[in-house]
Write a structure and sequence with these properties.
Elements: H1 9-12, E1 25-34, H2 38-49, E2 54-57, E3 73-74, H3 82-114, E4 123-129, H4 135-149, E5 154-156, H5 158-164, E6 173-181, H6 184-197, E7 201-203, E8 210-214, E9 217-221, E10 225-234, H7 245-248, E11 252-261, E12 276-279, E13 286-290, E14 294-302, H8 311-322, E15 331-341, E16 348-351, E17 357-360, H9 369-381, H10 401-431
Parallel strand pairs: 1-2, 1-10, 2-7, 4-12, 10-17
Antiparallel strand pairs: 3-6, 4-6, 5-6, 8-9, 9-10, 11-14, 11-15, 12-13, 13-14, 16-17
Bound molecules: flavin-adenine dinucleotide.
Flavin-adenine dinucleotide (FAD) binds near residues 36, 40, 207 and 240.
Length: about 425
């Protein structure tokens, strides 16, 4: 059966793009990449820049998974914070990893310009707004970011936040000028077209079903054919199957949801900024205005990978709770996607003991990290340098099996409860005369 894209805002507004053929017969390449999300596409593109020949296998269509359905926020950092990273990688390692994450943001921005990618619409700025009163905390973060990473963040008072976000839910905020938001599907399709133009072979509707070792490399098999290669790179993200059991055991698929509204007559009565907005709740809400009059809103995380029947209603409620003035809001589309999380919450980028490369586990922070992952894997394969080793502290830890899933869901509920408690306290404090 031919599986195509699900109905998302991005699908409705995607550029024209070719269907790539399914793999048939025997092929050869230096590198076979399994998975056509942004991790796979970035790896293919970076390998090509180093003179390697590449073949990319995608089970469905390129960017069919998380890469073509996400919020489109491109920001520095990872799915977990600096202190957590430093615990495993040390302070210097964590700083070097942060610098790589910044390079990832820059790479995406540069690719859009260099490849002249159509309808990607990069728009500068992300506004992080908090739902409790903590001016001093945010001001300290501005100073700390400057000192530690040289990053410029702009503090916004409650009045400034409320000029842009007309919601009583918000207190102060931080504006991140180096971040941007974009159309991730058009970016991925553009990168795919560039790969094809530069001689890379892309095969859609081609799930890798087996990888076998042979002299000097591997043979990767699909239902229709095979590819003999020196290197294999596994980029299955939240859709990683059992082709390589060690990878399947090392991640948890976590679902998250998005909603696209119908056009809103005067959207500035609620949101009056071109920046994308993220609140500080753990697994909180993130959203932005698209096409000048619609809201694209993301939120919720769950270990339940099947969509709830009332997905659209769940998301709609979150919007109207934040902006009661949007009580008449109509839903145009709602969808979910799967993210891949390792227990350490960092990307998994490296090589198995069998010599297979992997670049996965980007969690909810994949737009910059898939780009840099592609680059460090390609550098390692080409023998150019070994920056990939900075990710070594975050390997293929066991995901905990069913207990891992329960633990993640319980942690999420706990964090949600903590957020609710913090916000209730904040609003009570603020309401005091
Ligand atoms: C709703 C949502 C919102 C998000 N918002 C943001 C955001 O705003 N900013 C941000 O930075 N990150 C965000 N993320 C996270 C980001 O989208 C992901 O981290 C990133 O796209 C992961 O890329 P990937 O290439 O690893 O995985 P995917 O894009 O999921 O691609 C994996 C691909 O591998 C294929 N595959 C798997 N197994 C095989 C096989 N055996 N053979 C062939 N193909 C195979 C799958 O079909 C799939 O297409 C969000 C994620 C979701 C789901």
């Amino acid at each position: 059966m031919t599986e195509t894209y699900i109905d998302t805002y991005y699908r409705r507004t995607s550029v024209d793009h070719p269907a790539y053929p399914a793999l048939a017969g025997s092929h050869q390449a230096d590198v076979c990449i399994i998975g056509g999300g942004l991790a796979g596409l970035s790896t293919a593109y970076e390998c090509l820049q180093r003179g390697l020949t590449v073949a990319l296998l995608e089970r469905h269509r390129i960017a069919w998974g998380a890469s073509g359905r996400n919020g489109g926020f491109v920001t520095a950092g990872y799915a977990t914070g600096h202190d957590q990273i430093a615990r495993r990688a040390g302070e210097a390692g964590a700083k070097a990893l942060h610098d790589l994450s910044v390079e990832g943001v820059r790479m995406v921005r540069e690719n859009i310009d260099r490849l002249d990618l159509p309808r990607v619409n990069p728009t500068p700025g992300v506004l992080r707004a908090i739902r409790y009163d903590d001016a001093a905390g945010l001001q300290a973060e501005v100073a700390e970011s400057k000192r530690k990473f040289g990053t410029t963040l702009r503090y916004l008072s409650r009045e400034e936040v409320q000029e842009k976000l007309k919601s009583k839910a918000y207190f102060q905020g931080l504006y991140v000028p180096d971040a941007f938001h974009f159309h991730p599907l058009n970016y991925a399709l553009g990168l795919g077209a560039a790969i094809a133009r530069q001689g890379g072979a892309i095969f859609e509707q081609s799930a890798a079903t087996a990888i076998t070792r042979k002299a000097g490399g591997f043979t990767v098999t699909t239902a229709g054919g095979s590819i003999a290669v020196e290197h294999v790179v596994l980029c299955g993200g939240g859709y990683t199957d059992r082709v390589v059991p060690a990878l399947h055991r090392a991640y948890l698929p976590i679902a998250t949801y998005m909603l696209l509204s119908e056009p809103i007559a005067d959207i500035t009565q609620a949101i009056d900024t071109n920046a994308a907005i993220a609140d500080d709740r753990r697994a909180g809400d993130y959203y932005r205005v698209v096409d000048g009059n619609r809201i694209l809103w993301g939120g919720c995380i769950t270990t339940r990978t099947a969509d709830p029947a009332n997905l659209a209603a769940i998301m709609r409620r979150r919007i109207v709770e934040t902006y009661p003035q949007l009580g008449a809001l109509k839903v145009a589309a709602a969808w979910s996607g799967l993210m891949s999380y390792a227990r350490h919450l960092m990307p998994q980028i490296g090589r198995t003991s069998d010599g297979l490369w992997f670049a996965t586990g980007f969690g909810g922070h994949g737009m910059n990290t898939t780009a840099i992952a592609g680059r460090v894997v390609a550098e390692a394969i080409a023998g150019e340098c070994d920056r990939i080793k900075l990710y070594k502290p975050f390997g293929l830890d066991w995901n905990g099996g069913p207990f891992g899933r329960i633990a993640v869901q319980a942690t999420y509920w706990y964090l949600q409860a903590m957020d609710a408690w913090r916000e209730r306290g904040a609003h009570k404090t603020h309401a005091r005369p």
